[in-house]
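JOB MANIFEST
job_type = single_chain_structure
chain_count = 1
residues = 128
[input]
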Amino acid sequence: MSATWNGTAQTLLAGTPGPEYLGTPAAVTLAAPGTVSAYGGGWFAKQSIGIGSVSLAVCYQDQSGPGPLTVFGTPTTISVNGSQVWHFATGSVDLGAGTYNVGLCAQNLGVNSVNKNGETSGFVFVAP
């Protein structure tokens, strides 16, 4: 294992464009090109009435620049209600040498904020 992340999953506001990291991502440095694999999850719920919808994935961001937040693996659309439920995402990507932030990211696809979230955590493996 190369790195871990954890933290509190912040409120996901309705109408926010693009994915955002949940909690604090892990910093991973590759001395040479390699394959980065990540697994992470978090507790999701909302306070308002009705069902919420969130796109959940693992993401990376090149710290040089910094680059854009890029989803890897296949994003999963999850339904969110008033009870906290654990959801996870996983993926692998080939990256060049450099330092990257890697973590769990999400985008609120619904019309209400997802605002009763719990903790998030995950881990990163790097292979040559």
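[summary]
The chain has one domain: 3-127.
Residues 3-127 form a domain with the Jelly Rolls fold (CATH 2.60.120).
exit_status = 0
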